[in-house]
Hints:
With 120 residues, this protein is an all-alpha fold. The chain is built from two helices and no strands. The protein has helices at residues 11-84, 87-115. The protein starts with 10 loop residues before the first helix and ends in a 5-residue tail after the last helix.
Amino acid sequence: MRRTPGGGYNDMDDIRNSEIIERENDQMLSNLQGKVHALKSLTIDIGNEVKEQNKYLNGMDNDFDFGEGLLGSTMKRLQVMAAKSNKRFTLYLVLFSFGVFLLIYYIIKWRSWFGTSKSD
């Protein structure tokens, strides 16, 4: 509060100061409400994204469980077949694998000889 030259207080200055402070408070309150609304919206979006990702991960988990079961049964069949098989079957399997490897090798070499010439 300010004193007037006569020794009293000037109520008009006090009223103006309080109005200015009130306007500043209202403006800051409005800014704060906007920020709270933005944070609430962001939080809701994050929650929705988390729910969606959890659904996706659960689906992947089910797919991996299915794949694991399928691979496990395939491995059991291979073990049974390997225990029963003779040397000729093993030789055919090795020759087939070697032939596939050679085929892939020649395809890669052929592409490098003929197919990768770039002219800029």
